[in-house]
């Protein structure tokens, strides 16, 4: 009787293990590298095709993602956003550590293939702390526009890289999508 139970248990384990090995070989996880950085959510390779997270790829490429529930369609839009930083009428990209300056962010947006409802501009210090420079609801229904923030006073207290982020929102209920970045370097005097 023991032998029979042992034989049945061995047979069940063999079938289960073989099934698991087959399932593992049928779909494989793949590493996805974009511009030298590995995505957190790996892709899956199965039946000769690679499947990736649309949201993560779009986020990495600084694009907008729209999901249409009715048609079950995902659309990805990559607008061109060029930012310029002005202190008075002078364009800048570097500052001296410890200086407090007043500046504005000027953005030229083109190739915008979808309507948007809001924009937001932030600054992130070298420690990762983010502050909003300006956030505004907008009505844009054309493929290009210009956007300028109000004057913003900021102290560059730490040496290092500060990042200006430009976000867009397709509709009020959507999450913010990062679509462009600009770097300011604060150097020791």
Structure commentary:
The chain is of the alpha+beta class. It has helices spanning 2-26, 54-60, and strands spanning 27-30, 33-34, 37-38, 43-46, 49-51, 64-68, 73-77, 80-87, 90-91, 94-96, 100-110, 116-124, 130-140, 145-148, 152-155, 160-169, 177-187. Strand 8 and strand 9 form a beta hairpin. The protein is globular. The protein has two domains: 2-74, no CATH class; 79-187, Immunoglobulin-like. The chain has two helices and 17 strands. The strands form five sheets. Strands 8, 9, 11, 14 and 15 form a five-stranded antiparallel β-sheet that branches. Strands 10-17-16-12-13 form a five-stranded mixed β-sheet, with no helix packed on it.
Quick overview of this protein structure:
By secondary structure, the chain is α+β, with helices and mostly antiparallel strands. It has helices spanning 2-26, 54-60; strands at residues 27-30, 33-34, 37-38, 43-46, 49-51, 64-68, 73-77, 80-87, 90-91, 94-96, 100-110, 116-124, 130-140, 145-148, 152-155, 160-169, 177-187. Mean pLDDT is 87; it is low at 15-23.
């Amino acid at each position: 009787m023991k032998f029979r139970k042992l034989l049945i248990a061995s047979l069940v384990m063999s079938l289960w293990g073989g099934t698991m090995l087959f399932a593992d070989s049928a779909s494989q996880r793949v590493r996805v590298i974009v511009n030298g950085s590995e995505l957190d959510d790996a892709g899956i390779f199965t039946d000769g095709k690679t499947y990736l997270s649309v949201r993560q790829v779009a986020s990495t490429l600084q694009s907008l993602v729209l999901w249409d529930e009715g048609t079950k369609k995902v659309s990805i839009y990559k607008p061109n956003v060029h930012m310029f930083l002005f202190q008075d009428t002078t364009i800048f990209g570097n500052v001296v550590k410890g200086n407090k300056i007043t500046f504005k962010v000027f953005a030229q947006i083109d190739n915008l293939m979808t309507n948007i409802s809001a924009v937001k501009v932030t600054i992130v210090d070298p420690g990762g702390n983010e502050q909003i420079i300006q956030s505004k609801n907008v009505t844009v229904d054309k493929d290009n526009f210009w956007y300028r923030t109000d004057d913003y006073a900021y102290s560059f207290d730490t040496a290092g890289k500060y990042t200006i982020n430009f976000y867009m929102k397709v509709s009020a209920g959507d999450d913010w999508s990062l679509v462009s970045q600009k770097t300011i370097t604060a150097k020791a005097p």
